[in-house]
């Protein structure tokens, strides 16, 4: 399976021009497998029936208001909740972590807003829905929470993190071997 997606994010007043709606944007490509196919569970009358996706995801994020960048390679997990599908619409939940590099130089130590590179992690969790147009193509839309941190590697306790609950993701997936 191959997916391509884009995100737009708002982190709040911590970034310059805090009133700007789109403060960051990102691009990612995911190369995935559905290793277990469709899994059925007897508990909860099959409410957990679904399909588990695991993939590698090169990702890039641009803090537009700061003119700074992050790039990394992530591990992405997504679970399609087939029990709750409605026609061709299938909801999902996902999570990913992408360690990588950045040129971040954000904030100040004095007000605990400092975040600097070169090492960063981009951690995301989200919910969304895919629309299966046919057995191969599924565009999707979702909401994500993002956490960007250097894990204390770039200055210890004098560095902080950046969080958002206001991130939108739009993408499309191609399922290459379904039906063969």
Report what the structure shows.
This protein is an all-beta fold. The chain has a single domain, classed as Porin, CATH 2.40.160. The protein has strands spanning about 1-10, 25-35, 40, 50-65, 70-80, 90-100, 105, 115, 120-130, 135-150, 160-175. The strands form two sheets. The chain has an eight-stranded antiparallel beta barrel. The radius of gyration is 18 Å and the shape is elongated.
How would you summarize what this structure contains?
This protein is an all-beta fold and 180 residues long. The chain is 0% helix and 59% strand. It is built from no helices and 11 strands.
List keywords for this structure.
mainly beta, 180 residues, eight-stranded antiparallel β-barrel, Porin, elongated, two-stranded antiparallel sheet
Task: List the uncertain runs.
Answer: none
**Order of strands across the main sheet:** 1-2-4-5-6-9-10-11
Gyration radius over CA = 18 Å
What's the number of extended β-strand segments? Answer: 11
Task: State the name of the first-level CATH class.
Answer: Mainly Beta
Count of the separate structural domains: 1
Mean pLDDT: 88
- What structural category characterises the helix and strand content? mainly beta
Helix/strand order: EEEEEEEEEEE
Largest sheet: 8 strands, antiparallel, barrel
Give the number of helices: 0
- Label the CATH architecture: Beta Barrel
Beta-strand share of residues: over 45%
CATH names the topology as Porin
* Cα shape: elongated
How far apart lie the N and C ends? 14 Å
**In percent, how helical is the residue content?**
under 10%
């Amino acid at each position: 399976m191959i997916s391509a997606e884009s995100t737009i994010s708002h982190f709040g007043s911590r970034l310059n021009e805090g009133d700007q709606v789109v403060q960051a944007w990102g691009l990612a490509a995911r190369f995935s497998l559905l290793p277990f196919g469709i899994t059925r569970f007897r508990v909860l009358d099959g409410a957990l029936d679904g399909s588990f996706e695991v993939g590698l995801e090169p990702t890039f994020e641009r803090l537009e208001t700061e003119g700074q960048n992050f790039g990394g390679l992530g591990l992405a997990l997504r679970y399609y909740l087939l029990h709750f599908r409605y026609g061709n619409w299938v909801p999902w939940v996902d999570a990913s972590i992408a360690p990588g590099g950045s040129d971040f130089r954000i904030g100040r130590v004095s007000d605990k807003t400092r975040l600097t590179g070169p090492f960063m992690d981009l951690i995301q969790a989200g919910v969304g829905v895919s629309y299966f147009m046919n057995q191969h193509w599924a565009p999707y839309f979702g909401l994500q929470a993002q956490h960007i941190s250097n894990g204390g590697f770039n200055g210890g306790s004098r560095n902080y993190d950046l969080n958002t609950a206001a991130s939108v993701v739009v993408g499309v997936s191609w399922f290459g071997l379904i039906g063969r």
